[in-house]
Every structure is written in C-alpha cells, then in structure tokens.
Specification:
The protein starts with 6 loop residues before the first helix and ends in a 7-residue tail after the last helix. It has 4 helices and no strands. It is globular. The relative contact order is 0.10. The chain is mainly α and 124 residues long. It has helices at residues 7-28, 30-48, 53-83, 89-117. It has one domain: Helix Hairpins (Orthogonal Bundle).
C-alpha cells in the first residue's frame, strides 16, 4: 500500500497515521495502557532521583523500549488475527515471540535500573 503523497504532505500525513495508531492502540489494548501508565509513573519517579543526565537518559530510553516492544507485539497479534482466527502453531509462535519481546524489554529495564540505582540506595 504505497502512499499517494510526496514531500511535506507525506511527512504530515505520517504524523496523522502515527497519531491514529497511538489512539487506536491505546483504546483497544489494555496491555499498552498498562505499559504507558507504568512508564509514566516510573519515568516521573526517575526524574525525581539524583541521577546524572546520562543515567536518566539511559533509563528513560529503556522505558521507551518497553513501549516499542509492546507496539511490535500488538502489530504482530493484529496481523496474525487478520490472517485468521483459527489456531495454527505458527500463529502461536509469532504471538509468543512478540510476548517475549516485551518481557525482554522489561528485563532490560529492571537490570539497567538495578545497576544504576543500586549505588544510590546504599550499595557500593
């Protein structure tokens, strides 16, 4: 599905499509809403801690990674469901891999947070 628009109009339309994707996902996907809430709350708490700019940026980017992976997971699920609702082992595998992406992003965030925040709270 190639866009009929070019130049600045194509770029502006891309922003509209991105907004539509966010609104649609936020309305229909509980997991995405939960991840957004988690990232907002944790992001605010992180901003209140005495972290260097680099440490804060790294942890905020790790939070964004969670949202990126949740969006990829949702896209995989939507495509698989579009192909067919009946059970197929490859459909299950695709959805399971999408779920793993989200889990790995959470593990990445918590590992980074542990490494960065441990010294802040009495560690060496």
């Amino acid at each position: 599905m190639k866009s009929e628009y070019t130049g600045l109009k194509r770029i502006l339309k891309a922003f509209v499509y991105s907004r539509d994707g966010f609104v649609s996902t936020f309305k229909t996907e509980a997991a995405f809403r939960q991840d957004v809430a988690f990232c907002l709350i944790v992001g605010i708490v992180l901003c209140l801690l005495p972290l260097s700019g680099v440490q804060l940026a790294f942890l905020i980017f790790a939070l964004f990674l969670i949202l990126f992976m949740e969006l990829i997971n949702t896209a995989i699920e939507v495509i698989v469901d579009r192909i067919g609702e009946e059970y197929h082992p490859l459909s299950k595998k695709a959805k399971d891999i999408g779920s793993l992406l989200v889990l790995l992003a959470f593990i990445h965030f918590f590992a980074a947070a542990l490494i960065i925040l441990y010294p802040l709270f009495g560690g060496n």
